[in-house]
Amino acid sequence: MHLKFHWPILPLLLLSFVLWHAPLAAASDQFTENSLETEVRFLAGRMGVPGDKIYQLVDSLKAAMAHPWFRSESKVRPVRGVMVFQSSEGGLIVKYMEGSGLVVFAPGGPSKVINLKAWSVGAQAGGSRTYGVGLFMGLASPDLWAGEYSGNVRGATAAEYSTKGGTVWSKYDSQGLLQHHLYLATSGTGLSAGVGKGKLTIYP
């Protein structure tokens, strides 16, 4: 038996196929925890990060993803970008930090160079070199990652010691509405300790 379709039915079938597969396409730019770990290892390797520091970065990433805040927030604002960076910092009361790294906005996607600089106010001591991972949460478009972020800074590193830690930086639009978060997990060497508020700027 042969089935015959009238011509108006065929466009409807095609539209149904597109709609059925649309969620899969939309989800392709989201990262799973396994793909995040893979991307961090890959990006860190391309940057020449020492093997022991890559291990610590992945360990810090896992700890950050296990945090209750991330578990809850990622359901509303999934991770749509991941970066690995290296930075150096200094300052006593006002701490300054500058660094650079690589970022991707889809699992297995092409990487781009990223630069960052930040300042924070609080009790500081000495300076340090830091390796870090950044997770862009709720990023509506890869074109919106650059700009100024604000947040509360809490961290501590000591000579020849690396510590797990996560800080949440948020980007707002001109109306003061939240656009997305940048969740940083760092592993550093040197001597730096402090609690304060700060600004983080990311640019190509």
Describe this structure in words.
- Helix content is 28%, strand content 42%.
- With 204 residues, the protein is α+β, with helices and mostly antiparallel strands.
- The chain has a single domain (29-203), classed as Beta Barrel (Lipocalin).
- β1 and β2 form a beta hairpin.
- The model is unreliable at 9-27, 153-165 and 189-195 (pLDDT under 50).
Any key phrases for this structure?
single chain; 204 residues; alpha+beta; Lipocalin; 8-stranded antiparallel beta barrel; 28% helix; globular
Write the layout of secondary structure elements.
Elements: H1 9-27, H2 33-47, H3 51-65, H4 68-76, E1 79-90, E2 94-104, E3 112-121, E4 128-137, E5 147-157, E6 166-172, E7 178-190, E8 192-203
Antiparallel strand pairs: 1-2, 1-4, 2-3, 3-8, 4-7, 5-6, 5-8, 6-7
Helix pairs in contact: 2-3
Query: How would you state the average pLDDT, rounded?
Result: 76
Unreliable sequence segments? 9-27, 153-165, 189-195
Total count of strands: 8
For the termini, the CA-CA separation is 62 Å
Briefly summarize what is shown.
It is built from four helices and eight strands, in the order ααααββββββββ. The chain is of the alpha+beta class and 204 residues long.
